[in-house]
Amino acid sequence: MIDIHCHILHGIDDGPQDIKESVEMAQIAYNDGIRHIIATPHFSANHYSHRGLVRDKVNELQNQLHIHNIGITIHTGNEVRLESPAFIEEHSRDENFFYLGAASQFILLEQVWEGYCEETPKIVKSFMKRGITPIIPHPERHFFFRDNPQLLIDLINQGCLTQVTVDSLLGKNSEETMTFSHWLIEQNYVHVIATDAHNVRRKPNLSEGFRIVTEIAGNQRTDDIHRRLEQIIGFN
Ligand SMILES: [Fe+2]
């Protein structure tokens, strides 16, 4: 399995405490059946995880995984927060954050928690024009998408992908988050799932997510998600 959203790098954002915990997370992921992880530290006003830093941390962790004989490949990435249109424009121009996938054709583009950025469709349009598809992480956790799903549907119609988080499906975030995440799957508005793991408690648990998707929407949908994850990472 492929996890495209995981805060597995230590000392870079609100992820694991130290490299030891990163390795423990990788072991949990491996035992769950995960073989590829895109490391997606926050790129935001609070956590400036620029490319050089992410690359160094990925290399450091990959070396540790070799030493510990854990067969997982770590890929570079970022979870980019839409602090403002100017923030995205500046850091995209200066190539400060990582896109996702071998061909850098996807961006994990997170909304701020306080409210919906009304200029999102404009920003999405400019990425799409450059051949980059925005993936919206955990829409189910944002109150404005729950209150007004049409905001999300409009972005999907523009070509955005959505990523629901396994903990939401499991009910670990809140009741309303779980209800909305299940509804999104029923309505076929979920393109991929991911763990958004941060440590050994908020852990990589992808297989449980796939179990729920299969329960709600069947095997075909589960296969579709696996295929899309392969496309995002660049395997096909
Ligand atoms: Fe995240």
UniProtKB/TrEMBL annotation:
InterPro entries in alphabetical order: Caps_polysacc_synth_CpsB/CapC, Pol/histidinol_Pase-like
Pfam families linked: CpsB_CapC
Domain of life of the organism encoding this protein: Bacteria
GO molecular function per UniProt: manganese ion binding; protein tyrosine phosphatase activity
Gene3D superfamilies associated with the record: Metal-dependent hydrolases (3.20.20.140)
Keywords (A to Z) from UniProt: Hydrolase, Protein phosphatase
EC numbers on record: 3.1.3.48
Reaction equation(s) it catalyzes: O-phospho-L-tyrosyl-[protein] + H2O = L-tyrosyl-[protein] + phosphate
Broadest EC class assigned to this enzyme: hydrolase
Family: Belongs to the metallo-dependent hydrolases superfamily. CpsB/CapC family.
Alphabetized PANTHER family for the sequence: TYROSINE-PROTEIN PHOSPHATASE YWQE
Protein name stated in the entry: Tyrosine-protein phosphatase
